[in-house]
Specification:
By secondary structure, the protein is of the alpha/beta class. It has 16 helices and 15 strands. It is flat and about 65 Å long.
Length: 417
């Protein structure tokens, strides 16, 4: 039996790979830091999968010790990292590193590489199925389209757990939207797996879960199973939200909130290519160490004509090894695009000369995929919808708080898949 050692401080990343590879007759050992990894390397695995950012003993130091041992040096290595540049890649050349994956990692590509290196066949589900996950106002939205892909359904379990942890949701509430699936008895096992993973990952009571679909098969499937008693199947999103948003102050606020979330979630449409469906958030506990690691060496563009906002953000990132680039309007930022790459863009919508939407159009025209977080005082539904349709990752309402900025950055950038 082939043996793989996984050295990564993200517990969910280790757990997922341990489960997936173990189910394919690969023996998996895990280590929580570099020092632990060096100790477990002595068992001579057939493959080492290691994160670049490790505590107690760095990745390169582990590789140096491995190279110094004639028994360990031949072990092939896969490296993952939140950020990577050419200098780091060249640094790894002497250590039998076979592949470098920049996070977020496409899980199907990673598994295919493990299969190629170890020679051990790995079952990868290539059937149709897209899963998207969003959080709005402490409600977790899960959108499933085209079908129930087993691997993506398994990854959903970890994604939900991370989001609940990140947003510190004490009473999880979920809305599961099913679309583009031709339901029949053959989809029963996939639906059951989906529901079981959602219940396990969220810890939510059945009364706090809504299934949004018009399909009679789904309605009868849930109705006939005692373990799903309390889960409500609805055909109207606003009706589903009405019960879950009952803690809002007034009925009017609740209806407005429901309508806004409905449009934000359902009007964007399916993204092109792979999205959340083959990745999940990394170890994202909202602490100083996580923030520091995530912000290290990041190039962040702040595009806002409000000097007060620029100063607030500048003060927010003070003390972190982050490269802040401040632009007072869209024109200056667009001019800078040809000279510099940005890992993240914080963007105002209302600015002189070139507004936020002009910036978003320019990013699309230049095929620049850097994630964008909008910072805006505009709350009109049409504006919010338009921003999300143009590829915005998140939308923060002014006045903004530093904690909100950090939380969104962690959500967007601190990912393994």
């Amino acid at each position: 039996m082939k043996r793989v050692l996984i050295v990564d401080e993200a517990s969910l990343f280790r757990e997922y790979l341990e489960t997936k590879l173990g189910g394919n007759n690969i023996e998996v050992a895990t280590a929580i830091n570099g020092l632990d990894g060096v100790t477990k390397l002595r068992n001579i695995p057939d493959l080492l999968i290691m994160d670049y950012n490790l505590s107690r003993q760095g990745c390169v130091e582990v590789l140096k010790q491995k190279k110094a041992s004639s028994a360990l040096a031949p072990i092939p290595v896969i490296i993952t990292a939140q950020q990577f540049d050419q200098k780091k890649i060249l640094e790894l050349v002497p250590y039998n590193v076979k592949k470098v994956f920049a996070k977020p990692v496409k899980i199907d590509t990673l598994l295919a590489t493990i299969q190629e290196i170890t020679g051990q066949p790995i079952d990868i589900d290539k059937s149709p199925g897209i899963i998207e996950v969003h959080v709005n106002d402490d409600i977790v939205f899960v959108e499933v389209t085209e079908g129930f892909n087993r691997d993506k359904t398994d990854l959903l379990r970890f994604k939900i757990a991370e989001l609940i942890n990140l947003y510190q949701i004490k009473t999880p509430k979920l809305i599961v939207m099913l679309s583009g699936i031709n339901f029949s008895f053959t989809e029963g096992p996939g639906l059951q797996k989906l529901l079981n993973n959602i219940l396990e990952a969220s810890g939510a009571s059945q009364g706090n879960i809504r299934i949004l679909t018009r399909d009679e098969f789904v309605k009868n499937f849930i109705k006939d199973r005692k373990e799903y008693e309390g889960i409500e199947v609805v055909s109207n999103l606003q009706y589903a939200l009405d019960g879950l948003l009952k803690d809002l102050e007034t009925t009017e606020n609740r209806e407005e909130q429901a309508e806004l979330i409905s449009d934000k979630v359902l009007s964007v449409g399916n993204p092109e290519g792979e999205s959340v469906q083959l990745r999940f958030e990394g170890e994202m506990k909202f602490g100083a160490d996580d923030i520091k690691i995530t912000l290290e060496d990041l190039n962040i563009a702040v595009v806002d004509d409000d000097e007060g906002i620029r100063e607030l953000i500048k003060h927010t990132f003070h003390g972190f090894d982050t490269n802040l680039n401040l632009f007072p309007d869209g024109v200056e930022f667009i001019t800078a695009l040809g000279r510099k790459n940005f890992d993240l863009i914080l963007l105002d919508l209302v600015m002189p000369r070139a507004d936020g939407f002009a910036v978003l159009r320019e990013l699309k025209d230049k095929n620049i995929t850097s994630p964008v977080i909008v910072l805006s005082a505009i709350s009109e539904r049409e504006t919010v919808i338009r921003a999300f349709q143009m590829g915005v990752k998140s939308y923060l309402m002014k006045p903004i708080k530093p904690a909100d900025i950090f939380k969104k950055i962690l959500e967007i950038l601190r990912v393994n898949f």
